[in-house]
Design a protein that fits this description.
- This protein is an alpha+beta fold and 108 residues long.
- It has a domain of 69 residues: 434 Repressor (Amino-terminal Domain), CATH 1.10.260.
- The protein is built from 5 helices and 3 strands; from the N terminus they run βαααααββ.
- Strands 1-2-3 form a 3-stranded antiparallel sheet.
- A hairpin with a 5-residue loop joins strand 2 and strand 3.
- The longest helix has 11 residues.
- The radius of gyration is 22 Å and the shape is elongated.
Length: 108
């Protein structure tokens, strides 16, 4: 098993706790802090975990929501199974359950 780190993006949850239910609610609040993002960019920021995040945007979100970066980003471990491949290399794969099939003699 390989321990890989992932994260949970909690922006939508924190917005809801503060009665902010529309992604467009953030646009003017960010603009007040000098962050100019389009409605589409803010929508993606709220609905999808970002792969990269500008530090100014992170600080502005924390200020608007009165939270810390730890409130917005929750690290979580993702366990992956390692199996050997041809050539001696290892490949990490997600663990997925398989349905078992019982074959009795004479059945196919």
């Amino acid at each position: 098993m390989i321990k890989k780190m992932g994260y949970q993006w909690r922006l939508r949850h924190l917005m809801a706790e503060r009665d902010m239910f529309h992604t467009s609610d953030l646009v003017p609040l960010l603009a007040e802090l000098g962050i100019r993002l389009s409605r589409e960019q803010v929508y993606r920021l709220v609905t999808q975990p970002p792969q990269r995040l500008n530090m100014d945007v992170l600080v502005a979100l924390c200020d608007i929501l009165d939270c810390t970066p730890n409130d917005l980003i929750r690290p979580e471990a993702v366990h992956r199974q390692v199996r050997k491949t041809a050539g001696g290399h290892t490949a990490a794969t997600e663990i997925t359950p398989r349905r078992s099939v019982i074959r009795r003699p004479g059945q196919q």
